[in-house]
């Protein structure tokens, strides 16, 4: 089953409001005159109008789409190639019709319109039921205004995709309206800060509309890979429908509920997994599982089963809540998607008498920042396992082939999920506990024999910090690259030597690394200038743009502590070093301290960077940018040792 890619954006400013026409060819003088988007200078194109109008006829959702786009720079010509993806399936589930397009250029100050014909439209089969309509606008140039419209029919009226208000170019005007028939009742699912705080809404005679103006374009931003979760959009889930002619004395139609309860929805999934064999009541055959899991505590049994599945099965395919294989097929093939492996793991634990149940979640990046509090299945895409081990509940996962027992993939660190229990399925909170830290200790001294400045570095990474290093190390090994490449980019002016790795993730949740960074011919210099803490990735500010569209997401809470002991060589004096500092931003979601102690023959430097709340909203971006600039400046500050000429 294919996941739908949803796109998100979180901030807008109402700065530009042209007189929009929703009809093709009715272009205003203001739109012809537009040379630049005032709130997003440098944008290569602008979506002047985006409009959708939906109605339900004879069990089909019909939506009329209309877009007007202006090319503002040479780079904006890429917007002249339009791609519209839809799911046809085996029964023509979605279809496109009524396609019209035209391009308008100013020649001698007068608009010249070129209408596209059938040769400019292409329908491409992408496989697995997906198709793509492609529109190629001829003679596109800076100043061109592109317009296109089409109608999409969708036979699925249980869950309506609705409307996403943002696009790859800034959107000056985006409106969606839908007419709901009297015999159907839908739950409206809204998402996005702008939708709730700045949209213009109307509701009249069964027609509902939302309008947003002056939206920023979609752009990649540092520390936000799950931007789809912060989109401004509306969707609809069928709640109940009017059917029949009634009974008894009433004689009128009756409302029938369509939405199941959480309990019924859960039972349907349990029945599905049962038919696939994942709810095991009998022991797994000894010849299939060549490991003894009969003794020890429940924690020890669960751990042994986890490592058996992780290390003996190939993890491949997309994570999803449905399975392509039965449990016997999976045990035989020894390969499967993460969801299949988690359910197989559940089957093994149940056969050992361990209480455990699946938890459906909407993973990060799937398009929803918060769970919808009424029961529809489309909001879930991945599976966790909740087990009771020796009286303690623990979330378990098998998404990452390198992760030790007890680790849950970061994309599954969400606030809530649907616990599947027979006749008792319900929403539960999800709180994954961990202590992800990085400890760095550096001992820095001038070697009198070689004349080299030698930094002996030791790094201790715990939990997810350690797992991140484990992936980097594996990548280097797979590519037959030296371990020195772990630090080459960080220590550009230094030579990296003697890298050793001690991976104890499974036993102690740590990955420790020791290495030397060496400045050659240091003794020949009158002044030694070096950064004792340059290993920190925050020695450069990742936030350089003027404004922020999406929240900043550090993914998880963590602490990094750096300690450097600098020995003052004979014949040198300490000329300069960074001063102490302690900073944070309002609300203290993030903090930084820097301390220097001059102990005579030794200078001790300690810095601590701590993320206490990993999600920082765009309205705090100005404070965060200034904070990170201060952190980067301090972490990049050098220690300066000056030669005195006397030994």
Number of helices: 9
The overall number of domains is 3
Mean pLDDT: 91
Distance between the termini: 74 Å
Low-confidence regions: 1-18
Structural class: mainly beta
Helical fraction equals: 10-25%
Query: Strand order across the biggest sheet?
Result: 5-4-8-2-1-10-13-12
What are the main properties of this structure?
647 residues; mainly beta; Immunoglobulin-like; C8orf32 fold; Jelly Rolls; 3 domains; 8-stranded mixed sheet; 9 helices; globular; disordered N terminus; signal; DUF3857 and transglutaminase domain-containing protein; DUF3857
Question: Can you give a write-up of this model?
Answer:
The chain is mainly β and 647 residues long. Helices cover 15% and strands 39% of the residues. The protein has 3 domains: 20-243, Immunoglobulin-like (Sandwich); 262-429, C8orf32 fold; 436-643, Sandwich (Jelly Rolls). It has an 8-stranded mixed β-sheet with strand order 5-4-8-2-1-10-13-12, with no helix packed on it. The longest helix has 16 residues, at 463-478. It is globular. Mean pLDDT is 91; it is low at 1-18.
Short note summarizing the structure:
By secondary structure, the protein is mainly β. It is built from nine helices and 35 strands. It is 15% helix and 39% strand.
How are the elements arranged and paired?
Blueprint (H helix, E strand, L loop, with lengths): L28 H5 L11 E13 L2 E12 L9 E7 L6 E14 L2 E6 L5 E7 L2 E7 L8 E10 L4 E6 L6 E9 L4 E8 L1 H5 L2 E5 L2 E9 L17 E11 L10 E4 L4 H14 L22 H15 L1 E2 L11 H7 L1 E2 L1 H14 L4 E6 L20 E8 L2 E5 L19 E4 L6 E4 L6 E11 L6 E10 H16 L16 E10 H4 L1 E10 L7 E4 L21 E2 L4 E10 L4 E5 L4 E4 L5 E9 L3 E10 L3 E2 L4 H15 L3 E5 L4
Parallel strand pairs: 1-10, 16-17, 23-29
Antiparallel strand pairs: 1-2, 2-8, 3-7, 4-5, 4-8, 6-7, 9-14, 10-13, 11-14, 12-13, 14-15, 18-19, 18-21, 19-20, 21-22, 23-24, 24-26, 25-26, 27-35, 28-34, 29-33, 30-35, 31-32, 32-33
Helix pairs in contact: 4-6
